[in-house]
Amino acid sequence: MITGKNQIGFNQSAQGSKTYHTINPKTNATNPTTFHEATQSEIDTACAKAKDAFTSYSKTTGTERAKFLRTIASEIEALGESLIQMYTTESALPEGRANGERGRTLGQLRMFADLVENDDWRNPTKTGENNGLRKALIPIGPIAVFGASNFPLAFSTAGGDTASALASGCPVIVKSHPMHSGTGEMIATAITKAAQSCDIPDGVFSNLNSSGIEVGEQLVKHPAIKAVGFTGSHKGGRALFNLAAKRDSPIPVFAEMGSINPVIITTKAIKKRGAELAETYAGSITMGAGQFCTNPGLILTVVSDETTAFVQDLADKTAALDAQCMLGPNIVKTYVKNTQEMQSQEGLKIVATTQNASGDNMAQAQIATVSGKHFLKNSTLQQEVFGPFSLVVQSQDTDELLKIIHTLEGQLTATLIAEDEELNELQEITTGLQEKVGRIIFNGVPTGVAVEDAMTHGGPYPASTDSRFTAVGNHSILRWVRPFSFQDFPEALLPEYLK
Amino acid sequence: MITGKNQIGFNQSAQGSKTYHTINPKTNATNPTTFHEATQSEIDTACAKAKDAFTSYSKTTGTERAKFLRTIASEIEALGESLIQMYTTESALPEGRANGERGRTLGQLRMFADLVENDDWRNPTKTGENNGLRKALIPIGPIAVFGASNFPLAFSTAGGDTASALASGCPVIVKSHPMHSGTGEMIATAITKAAQSCDIPDGVFSNLNSSGIEVGEQLVKHPAIKAVGFTGSHKGGRALFNLAAKRDSPIPVFAEMGSINPVIITTKAIKKRGAELAETYAGSITMGAGQFCTNPGLILTVVSDETTAFVQDLADKTAALDAQCMLGPNIVKTYVKNTQEMQSQEGLKIVATTQNASGDNMAQAQIATVSGKHFLKNSTLQQEVFGPFSLVVQSQDTDELLKIIHTLEGQLTATLIAEDEELNELQEITTGLQEKVGRIIFNGVPTGVAVEDAMTHGGPYPASTDSRFTAVGNHSILRWVRPFSFQDFPEALLPEYLK
After folding, report:
1. Which of B59, B455, B486 sits opposite A133 (nearest CB)?
2. Which residues, 6+ apart, have CB-to-CB distance to B204 below 8 Å?
3. Which of A42, A247, A271, B289 has its CA 20 to 30 A from that of B298?
4. ipTM topping 0.90
């Protein structure tokens, strides 16, 4: 069923001699399919097709695109258990997670179908006398989408970036993630089937295999590509951003690059419900082996006897949890390297490490502590450690805590754990956090990103490359559209939604 | 009244030894005020003040900001004739234009006051159970604004960029344009008076003098600056875009960089109303000495006897017009250099040149022609010549015309001059143009940008650095804001507009 070929519009293609395999992280066994990395000529063909297809696809009705998106969802559902099996084989993520993520992916596709079924999302605006000025949002052109290692479905081939771009009328070329190219191919086949059965033009969707960075680089540099969607590391996102900015004709890159998601826990909250918080946070830190961009990597406290006891409790509860399999050997290697780098920082102490477990690619969760003073003078302590790691900063007082908040880099989220009666004293902290993040949570955990209109998944750099957009929810379509005005235009030449 | 000092928040400052003067383009006489270019320390102070002020200014109510904007308008009005005199002395633009531009500037300030008086512009969104998720647009941080040489008021110190940024809750630091720093200082003083009388925090507005590129570069590189608004040349806009992209923490740059604004005139339209069109376009090409970013620099026709006669008529009517004074010696020098470069291109013929006139900085308007074949193989012919210059391309047929449209770079506008009965045949041309521009006009002229909600002033690169935004109209506020979500937040800590 899986061919290892690139999907170039309606054609499958395997011209290249550079091949690779995905592996099963649980066993490090090589999965059977040989994937053919896309050649320059295949990249060019996909881009030329996308450019040609854009002219007609950008003019399709909302009803046509809604049908296409719903058919993609049905075709993905029709893949049934074989998709779940491929997903778990390539990611080592549990079946429950695979099912949940598939549900989220289908939900997103149908959400965007509902959105574009009528043209309100275009914000049609009419001003001026007679025909005067008529404005609406129109698609920007072909989009290159880079899937995430940690979300083989919801943030990959048919994930939020692809769904929102296709909904807006933009063709999509996916650079398949080398760690789950089999899952990617299955989804690409479903999208292609849907396109064919819905009379969507050849070239509106392509899926290119790639084992390294070259295919992605060529895509971002290609003149036909008009914007980029990326979910992944800061290093990867920034590299693509730099490439896009250096083009003769620069293009926008929306890269969601994760963050350390600071959690402020007040001493009062610790006194009142320390044990419960320790349990909740041991769970949030280690959930999915910590492989979430909203993983709480930084816990900010003020020193007290209760805080010390809480940290011990959090450490004990984390250490008692089972080690988990990560997404692959490179992810584990980087995690170990990053935790070792942390350990060598002045003043940092590891207070919890889960037991190692037999099996490949297992990650030991770690809790570390550091004083506010050390944290303030060492920006390395702000670097994200992708995995089940969290650093507890013990400030000497609220002033130092505030200083720390003011030195934080941009973040996807911040969380405030406090008692209601403290709210008045917390205004300055809330304001300080607001300037740094895209979403602030009260008495909860940052993990879990609801697909809702009121969600912001993004934030000031380096959480994302452009804080003016969200990667999740209906408003994420705004990344791929631009305003366009008709002036004194005859009714007959106006699109339906401006008549 | 004019001091030549920098306005740094509420203080005037002239620490630097680097000074300059503006000149009167009509006479090349040096105007009396000695302007002190901002020093690095003054830039740093302005940025530090803006950063501090942001925390409280971002939390002001819409009513407070509306009052501030309206007071700025009143203070500018109170400057009376002295402002008009300064404007005409520094720009050589006629008094009627000065009055018109002042009216536009006041109108924009009041339009944004009306917009933010209630919080609908924030698009407040609530989803989820209980307090769930609540999202709204919030200001992004201090904005650096670069004024335009050709709009000393409406696109400069208190122009659209400043008005929209202040309306959103962002502090503004203006890099004063060296050609009209006196006009800039008068406006800066009006804004400062308004800030003081409206209890707006010190640092929400600063105005920095600059004779070259250094002050602007330092501003764009400063960590406190969170976005940039620019109106001017491609060279200048791209340089700032590159600087912003190279920052440790990149920031968005909205640069509106002009374009050649292609005008397609059909042979039928020429047959029907050639004489009228020649007169209209001779006027549009030379209006304001062609110093508009929407100046029609490219006229696309299909060869015929009627077209040849029309071009001759357009040439005669243009040649008969008076030469006009441009904005300054550097502008004229560049104009002459660019027209000379055009003249040396293969196949290009100059068919009209207005008589030279006595006086300094006078520009002779020029009409040139070239064949479609020559245009297609020479991208230099697509370069903007800022001034009263227009190139008429004579295609051999509609296919060649379409090919030309497909090779065009991004543009602010395109104009279609045609008869109603041709509309059906023009679908392909309209579609082709739509992919290249931000606004398309039917049977009109591109010059004249109405300040209306349905206006798009922007377009695909190189017309602007980000086609997803407009520089004119209420929606231009979207350049300076980002979505922000509160999750499970207690009512007491939510801003009023999310309660």
Report:
1. B455
2. B9, B50, B53, B57, B166, B171, B172, B195
3. A247
4. yes
Q: What are A483's strand-pairing partners?
A: A137
Residue A423: DSSP 8-state: G
Nearest to B18 by CA among B6, B1, B32: B6
The 10s digit of each residue's pLDDT in B273-300 is: 999 999 999 999 999 999 999 999 999 9
> Which residue matches tokens 């203006």?
B174
Chain B CB contacts of A242 under 8 Å are 245
For residue B452 the two structure tokens come to: 């209306």
Quick check: B171 and B54 in contact, CB under 8 A?
yes
Domains and CATH numbers, chain A: 6-257+464-498 (3.40.605.10), 262-442 (3.40.309.10)
3-state helix, strand, coil in chain B (%, to 5): 45, 20, 35
pLDDT, averaged across chain A: 96
Token pair recorded at residue A368: 């570390």
- How far, CA to CA in Å, does B65 sit from each of A431, B114, B450? 19, 10, 24
Give the span between the Cα atoms of B166 and A218, in whole angstroms. 40
Residues A330, A467, A253, B171, Cα dihedral to 10°: -140
B293 is catalytic: yes
The mean pLDDT of B98-105, rounded to a whole number, is: 98
Written in H, E and C, the secondary structure of B102-128 is HHHHHHHHHHHHHHHHCHHHHCCEEEC
Where are the strands (E) in A225-291, listed by range?
227-231, 253-256, 262-265
Across B373-479, where does the E strand assignment appear?
Answer: 389-395, 411-417, 437-442
In angstroms, rounded to a whole number, what is the distance separating the alpha carbons of residues B372 and B71?
Answer: 53
The one-letter amino acid code at B368 reads A
Stretch 32-71 of chain A: residues touching chain B, C-beta under 8 Å: 54-55, 58-59
| B256 in active site | yes
- Cα Rg of chain A (Å, integer): 24
Contact between chains at B452 and A127 (C-beta distance less than 8 A): yes
Question: How many other C-beta atoms lie within 10 A of the C-beta of residue A206?
Answer: 33
B77: number of Cβ within 10 Å = 13
Q: What is the pLDDT of residue B131?
A: 60
The closest of B181, B193, B180, B190 to B79, measured between CA atoms, is: B190
Regions of chain A where pLDDT drops below 70: 130-131
The per-residue pLDDT for range B151-201, each reduced to its tens digit, is 999 999 999 999 999 999 999 999 999 999 999 999 999 999 999 999 999
Q: What is the pLDDT of residues A160-179, one digit of tens each?
A: 999 999 999 999 999 999 99
Please report which helix (H) or strand (E) contains residue A322, including its range: none
Q: Is the peptide bond before B462 cis (omega within 30 degrees of 0)?
A: yes
Extract the tokens encoding A391.
């650093």
What's the CA gap between B288 and B324, in Å, rounded?
A: 8
Q: Is B147 on the interface with A (CB under 8 A)?
A: no
A487 to B439: CB separation less than 8 angstroms, yes or no: yes
Give the list of residues 6+ apart from residue B133 with CB closer than 8 angstroms, or none: A450, A452, A454, A455, B125, B126, B127, B485, B486, B487
The helix/strand/coil state of A145 is: strand
Q: Collapsing DSSP states into helix, strand and coil, what is residue A29?
A: strand
A200 secondary structure, DSSP code: P
Number of neighbours of residue B244 by Cβ within 10 angstroms:
23
Q: Which residue pairs, CB below 8 angstroms and at least 24 apart, start in A119-126? A: A119/A62, A119/A496, A119/A497, A121/A474, A121/A477, A122/A481, A122/A497, A124/A497, A124/A498, A125/B453, A125/B454, A125/B475, A126/A498, A126/B454
Using DSSP, state whether A253 is helix, strand or coil. strand
The CA radius of gyration of chain B, in Å to the nearest whole number, is 24
CA distance A255 to A264: 26
Using the Cβ of B450 and the Cβ atoms of chain A, whether some distance falls under 8 Å is answered with: yes
